[in-house]
Design goal:
The chain is an alpha+beta fold and 262 residues long. Helices cover 18% and strands 55% of the residues. α4 packs across α5.
């Protein structure tokens, strides 16, 4: 059923308010303050401010009788793990986030919001941890030439010093057009898509490892799948093995070492 917003035409108002705290599921937001303007069938919330999960959120939004809405928000130093825990979901990425969001759409029911949302999101996450993948384990396998036995576990974790992301929201999808990050052993870059209705995750990421034992930086292709709450990572081991064989065939010293073992 479509929500009837004709009530917005019933009166005009200009109100400033402040609430000590608001709780949504397990997420507590406090204090909350904003200026609310209702004029000619349009509701505007301006100068919205709140504190949540160790950081702050500022926002402005509007809604009219045709259910057209617009949201502009900025977060500063918000703990993503705290937010995920409060909403009862497993975080794919933990860290301290600074983000900017500009999204609009039509319809205020959850499905309508996900289907019609259109806009951009940028985010920088410091001291983050990526769940389900260990670049340190991958780097060690490359150094030890033990790629064939390399496996990925849901308990794996990669600590990232910094992660930057740019994304668009359109046609029911969150499209991460650019993601870059850096860990102690690799530089990460890639793209991804998330279905807003299905939470399905897909994408390609490459990890450029630090200097290998043979003095050459190797690139590890990684395919993303699964869902946001249960991501899956597939390593392109064939490409890695091919690169190592190529290195040995083009490096005389490594080739001689291999021949001496025969």
């Amino acid at each position: 059923a479509t929500t009837d917003l004709s009530v917005l035409n019933m009166a005009d108002a200009n109100v400033a308010f402040k609430i000590g705290s608001v709780k949504y599921q397990g997420l507590e937001v406090k204090p909350v303050s904003a200026n609310i303007l209702l004029q000619k069938g349009k509701l505007s919330v301006q100068n919205g401010k709140a504190s949540v999960c160790g950081g702050t959120v500022t926002a402005a939004l509007s809604l009219d009788t045709s259910a057209r809405w617009n949201v502009n928000a900025q977060t500063n130093n918000v703990n993503t793990q705290c937010v995920a825990n409060g909403l009862g979901v497993a975080p794919m990425l933990e860290g301290i986030a600074v983000a900017k969001i500009g999204v609009n759409g039509v319809g205020i029911e959850p499905v309508s919001i996900k289907k019609t949302a259109n806009g951009t999101i940028t985010a920088n996450i410091q001291n983050s941890q990526l769940q389900g993948l260990s670049l340190e384990k991958i780097a060690a396998a490359v150094r030890e030439k033990a790629i064939a036995g390399l496996t990925v576990s849901k308990d794996d974790v990669t600590a990232l010093e910094a992660l930057a992301m740019k994304a668009t929201v359109k046609n029911g999808e969150l499209c991460v057009t650019s993601v870059t990050g850096k860990s102690s052993v690799a530089e990460v870059s890639g793209q991804a898509k998330v279905g807003l209705l299905t939470e399905q995750l897909s994408g390609k990421v490459t990890a450029k490892l630090g200097t290998s034992i043979d003095g050459r930086r190797m690139i590890v292709p990684i395919t993303l799948s699964g869902t946001v709450t249960e991501p899956a990572y597939q390593l392109d081991l064939a490409t890695l093995v091919k690169e190592q064989v190529k290195e040995e065939l083009t490096n005389p010293e490594l080739l001689l070492k291999g021949l001496n073992k025969l």
